[in-house]
Structures
1.
Amino acid sequence: MATDVQQEPAPTTNDGELPVVGIDRRRAGLGTVGLAGFLGLWWLAALFQPAYVLPSPAVVAEAAVAEFASGEVFVALGQSIQHWIPGTIIGTTLGVAAGVALGWSSLLDDISSPVVRTLRPVPPLALIGFAIAWFGINHAGAAFIIAVGAFWINFYASYGGVEGVSDDLLDVARSLGVDGDLALIKTVVIPAASPEIMTGIRTGIGRCWMLVVAAEIFGVPGIGRRILRASNNLQVDVVITYILVLSIMFLLVDMAYRAVQKRVLVWR
Amino acid sequence: MAMTESGGSSVQVSGVSKRYASEQGSVRALADVTFGVDPGEFVCIVGPSGCGKTTLFRILAGLEPATRGQVTLNDSVVTEPTPNMGIVFQEYHLFPWRTVRGNIAFGLEKAVGLDGTDRDQRVQQLIDLVGLAGFEDSYPKSLSGGMKQRVALARALAIDPALLLMDEPFGAVDAQTRERLQDELLDIWQETGKTILFVTHDVEEAVTLADRVVVMGRDPGQLREIVPIDIDRPRSRTDAAFGTSAERVRSLIEN
């Protein structure tokens, strides 16, 4: 009976490779055109404005070179990373764990529902007072703000993912001898919900870069602090430099994450 | 095939009734269904949609409780899915994040007294048994319907259940593949000696496969009759005896 398998439609490995490359090239080309157009418009607009309202790309480039040359950028980046990394990791871990637990157990969900609904609308920035009181004006305090942001995104993504896990897969697993909540969560629920969980983590990572600026409002050093200080001094070129640094960091981390995600979710 | 199989087990369905609550009061899905299955027997449950055969399947599998009556498997009452029975659904329900090999190995990973080498060997035997050699590392998304159902069958067989419970397993594949899968299932049944309970709405399929056909009628939840199919295998659909049996089953469903 092994011989007749071949008569069925052959499994496809992937979509054609060549057209994909073509589309990528086309997208890259159009993207370059769009970027050039944006820079052109910016330049044109800057001609009629003083530098403290809108500096031209050339002025920003000069400021960027100066900030990089003095090493200021790397110092600020190094400081921000010290709360971005722990904040993101802690918030993501707790958010996924809570989302999976409450998505799985209706008992836990019912118990925690009033608390969750009360805390959910609180913006991370409203918790600055707690950050200072509990942790102080330091990396731990900023990490707390970032972690709160990461927590909710991951909580809801994981919760939704777990709710969507098919009962049939759970039935199959039970009939194959998987017994008990923890075993089912490990062997079925988390893998089945992993696309949603991983999308949540990705959104959370991006959100945390934005929160870096906000979390430094109360005086923790880093890129956000540099942006706020430059704003107060009307150094718009420096502000834009650090915004670009944030964008580039976000892009790099996001690209790396997407590569990992693609590998983990190769079965999709 | 040098696989050690545990052989079949007996099933007894005793006075099973099922009622569902609905807005118009309770609705009857099964009414006092009773029949037995001998060890190693191949029994098909056939009936039109809405006759309660899927409800019966879910109660047999322990996925749903009966309102009254009970199902026993080798004299122990079925209350939840157990590794004593392998379940195969129409929609396959493969684990999409696992390869063919990973799906088949799923039930063996927690098995006691089975070390890694034994497990790999058993998985490879099952892959060969269902004719999927060469596709071990494929994910379900890249398999055809027929191949997916082969994986589901191998996965259910992996834990060496005494009973295979199948709910319209070949309902979602094309006619040609279906006939081939039926032949393969009969081969596997004869090779392993499992007891098989097979739900279908296809009268020809039931008469092709079964030792006995449990016929359910249009009035919901009623077992009409149990029709023995005393035709030697392999059976041909053009055979006169086949036609007579199929006609008999069909008339029981309709009247």
2.
Amino acid sequence: MAQENQNVAFPFADTSTDDPIINSAPVQKIINVCRAMSLWPLTFGLACCAIEMMAFGMARFDAARFGAEVFRPSPRQSDLMIVAGTISRKMAPLVTRLYEQMPAPKWVIAMGNCAISGGPFVFKDQYGIVEGVDMIIPVDVYIPGCPPRPEGLLEGLFQVQKKITGRRWWPMPRMAEDR
Amino acid sequence: MIEPILILQMIEAIPIQLMIIFAGLLATVSFIGLNAILLVYLERKVAGFIHRRPGPYEVGPHGILQPFADGLKLVGKQIFTPTGADSFLYWLAPMISMAPALVCFLVIPFGPHLQIFNTNVGMVLILAFTGINVLALCIAGWTSQNKYSLLGAARDISQSVAYEIPLLLSILPIIFMTGTFNLFDIAMKQGSWPWQWFIVYQPLAFIIFFICALAETNRAPFDLPEAESELTAGFHTEYSGMGFALFFLSEYAYMVIAACVTAVLFLGGFHGPGVSGWWWFLAKVYILLLIMIWIRWTFPRVRFDQLLNICWKWLIPLAVINLLVTLLVIAL
């Protein structure tokens, strides 16, 4: 019976940011292209999706090609938060804090089913899991999969780039139905 | 309204030496900037090749626009001061780290006619000004109000103090052989061919100097002050945007200085087979920088006790023996 009363809601992260000092459209456009081309992720993995995230940075898939291999250990120097894995209730305040510690232009990828909605851990009266990282921080791109393939994460990176600059930079992969 | 002739007279009143130094500083700033752009690209590309991956590839042809994207992104990042930090000192630290690097380039002879400021204390000036970097990292670590920063700063101080000694001891044999602190004269005392360079007479001093230069510039395998896996990002954990970029820039500037000094002291400076000139100097500097990058991506980080043991138990005794033997040979 005590279990039912433990369903504590976590406060949503503080998303307030400073206004840019130079707020003219052409400058912002150029800087946005630069931001899209050098998205430094935070060295931060929560569960098994982080293994795929490592593959994303290694030789076969190589995120360095798109300027995204500089995994910064300090949240102050990173632009992209890849929430790779299950967010347990113990970890949720720390995820929020890491998000709040990142300086202003920042983006979040929810990688894998657990980060999207709690994935296989959602059942009646479950008490240990936050059901989706979007309950505690704002998410820009969702990558489904359990876990997603590294190609999926690359595609998620391209979607973040598309969201920043308003256009897709790299050719579309061939879909299964095109064959 | 000031008469144009008056302005001309005012310009003429400025000492010529001051104007040369001012122009030299401007040239130095652009040189450091160009080097940083090139080195960021080289570092990431070489890292890629060592890992058997292409490295930056899609941003511009073969990723050559990558450093520009990184730089502009860092300019556009939110500037941030931690709560409880001394704001003045916190923002002073990256500037203190960068400023001495500019001065060091003034005395380096890039070519037979390409030296901004020829002075008899060139070597001493470089040693003195590169020492200021330690102070900057100390301030950065202390004012960040962060455990990791403070630990990084403490590590940097003990490392730099330890490695300053064998660095000086490995320069001294060259100074005794040439009898001057003037970098231009030291370069002129060496001949065109590789066997006339001081590396042939002082191979041990060269190795000790190079290891110490790596440690002084906080390069891997001696990058303990910013050890990523232990201390988040060391002394610059709390710096975002341009504060971090300035620390990065100064690290690359000190790497270039270390390579330049090594080239002058041991590798004949601007001398080379055929026509001597700045092209030989730049070639040597870039070979040394590539070796530094190669070492960074090849060796794992040393432990802290290992770091100090290498210095106190090996480098300092070897450097002293080397110095004594050199003095004996000179005296005979």
